[in-house]
Amino acid sequence: MELRSTFQSIISLHQEELPFALQERSTQLPLDGNRIVTVTGIRRCGKSSLLGLTINRLLQQGIPKERILYVGFDDERFLSMSPENFDELLQAYREMYPDTSLKDVYMFFDEIQLIEGWELFVLRVYKNYCKHIYITGSTAKMLSEEMASALRGWPDEYREYPLSFKEYLAFKGTKANPFSEAGKAKMAVSFRGYCEEGGFPEVVLEKSKMEKVKILQSYFNTMLFRDMVEHYHIGASPSVVRYFLKRVMTISRSRLA
Questions:
Q1: DSSP strand E in 23-103: where?
Q2: At 16, phi and psi to the nearest 5?
Q3: Which run of H or of E encompasses 192?
Q4: Which pLDDT band, with edges at 50, 70 and 90, does 221 fall under?
Q5: Cα(18)–Cα(10) distance, rounded to whole angstroms?
Q6: E strand intervals along the chain
Q7: Which residues contact 154 (CB under 8 A, 6 or more apart)?
Q8: CA 130 to CA 65: how far, in whole Å?
Q9: With contact defined as beta carbons under 8 Å apart, do 136 and 93 qualify?
Q10: How far is 110 from 136, CA to CA, in rounded Å?
Q11: What local confidence, expressed as pLDDT, does residue 163 receive?
């Protein structure tokens, strides 16, 4: 019952936050494809935000927030969760909205691959209860082809990436005529910033240059170093891998200079 209560708290909290205050992205997920929609990509590229943007579009089409079930599994309260506990999620929602059929619910499971046995739960829900299922998975834990294999060919796959230059300009609120001399100069300056900051939304929206550097450093430590070593079971000394990655990035940066 404690886990069920936790699910209810999370579902309710997200419903109270709707609609989400998010910047639009180029990628849009289908709203009624009757397929399991999977979104993969590296950490912090905007997968969770893409789910939030999809929820906002559903709300605009008149879907009531009570029919939105959103759970992020990157939560310490799920550390000890086992496969048989997944049913607590369905029971939690049924208790909250006993008059709503699960077939009318839009289910969003963020980073669900962190829980063992997730694929069997998703397939069971899809085959028996609900056709509106959206899930994200970080490539740190599962590559897109591995997720497709786990779901046995059922998913409609999408891959999210960091911001494109066009999206970067939109996030920055930069507008320029690319055909005028002033506009070209402005675009050149913006592109330099894009190359230096990268396309991660959190970094782009951060105002402090010092904080940008700190965030990028944490990304390096987590995504390029720890995730790669863990996912591919690299047996080399961590210091050797770190040195190799830094050399690659230094060379890449020098070529952009």
A1: 36-41, 68-72
A2: -70, -25
A3: helix 181-197
A4: confident
A5: 13
A6: 36-41, 68-72, 106-110, 133-138, 155-159
A7: 35, 36, 123, 126
A8: 16
A9: no
A10: 5
A11: 97
